[in-house]
Specification:
Elements lengths: L3 E6 L3 H9 L6 E7 L3 H11 L3 E3 L13 E4 L6 H10 L4 E4 L6 H14 L3 E4 L6 H11 L6 E9 L19 H17 L4 E8 L5 E9 L5 E7 L8 E5 L2 E6 L7 E6 L6 E4 L8 H12 L10 H18 L7
Parallel strand pairs: 1-2, 1-4, 2-3, 4-5, 5-6, 7-10
Antiparallel strand pairs: 7-11, 8-9, 9-10, 11-12, 12-13, 13-14
Helix pairs in contact: 3-4, 4-8, 6-8
Amino acid sequence: MRTFNWAILGPGRIARKFAADLAHVPGAKLHAVASRSLAKAEAFAAEFGASHAVGSYEELLAVPGIDAVYVATPHSEHHAHTLLCLRGGLPVLCEKAFAQNAGQAQEMVRVAQEQGVFLMEAFWTRFFPAIAQALELVQSGVIGEVKHLVADFGFAAPFEPEGRLFNPALAGGSLLDIGVYPLFISQLFLGAPAAVRAVSTPTGTGVDANCAMALAYASGATATLFSTIAATTDNRCVLYGTKGQLQLLGRFHAPTGVRVQLLGEAEAQEFPAPTAGGGYQHEAAHVQQCLAQGLRESPLLPLAFSLALMELLDAVRREIGLRYPGE
């Protein structure tokens, strides 16, 4: 079996989870770690068995044998760091939100295509087995025509004005960090909305603490979506159809199965879909499959989908009046 040498650019909290999950991916090996701090890169590399550690992102381009780079820096940096890697000929799996805005995302896609290099948004939810189950059930008409979708994601974060979640310069706020999940799931099941409305509650730094969204679709369906960094919510997603309803079990962004309740039936059907590890291994394995086939983008999460999602995020930000520095 071929070995795929992964590099991590930005060894923070989510990168730790990704690195740990590479142990569940056949043929995957953490090969290199890049940080602005050499000491941090070396400690991360030692913990996860990487052969190379560098103290700047630019130095990563000189490390031999890299097959793919996982970009896990703050949202505000995704654009620059992805372009750095793409222009160096390195395939990129870029953490969501894909970029700060649609303009940045469009440039990332253009450069990937010009360079002929693989690029994918690291939207791990898309690759959970339960998502494949849910899509199959909905598309086969089990719950009839979908009329409404509800999804929420929230946790209570301590107010740290300079921290990633609250700093406007780091594209902070609930929307880009976790509101992207309800928007993602609505786009996956319902497509692009015909109308978008949103309201928000600002934090002391001006980014959104709460964001409530209402979407309408040409099909006649609607969606009610919510994100917050001020309270813990159920992290729940339910699709309501003309024949019944479907719920993603567990936290919907990392689902453990699907429950279907049909109208007129006393008992709900459950379809468990357990996963080993933390769940990041699914997207890593998919990237390896794409690279092995010589693909430049994912058939399950194509670049057009990520661009549409960024445009939707921009539309919500226009509704709530949120702009980041430099925009």
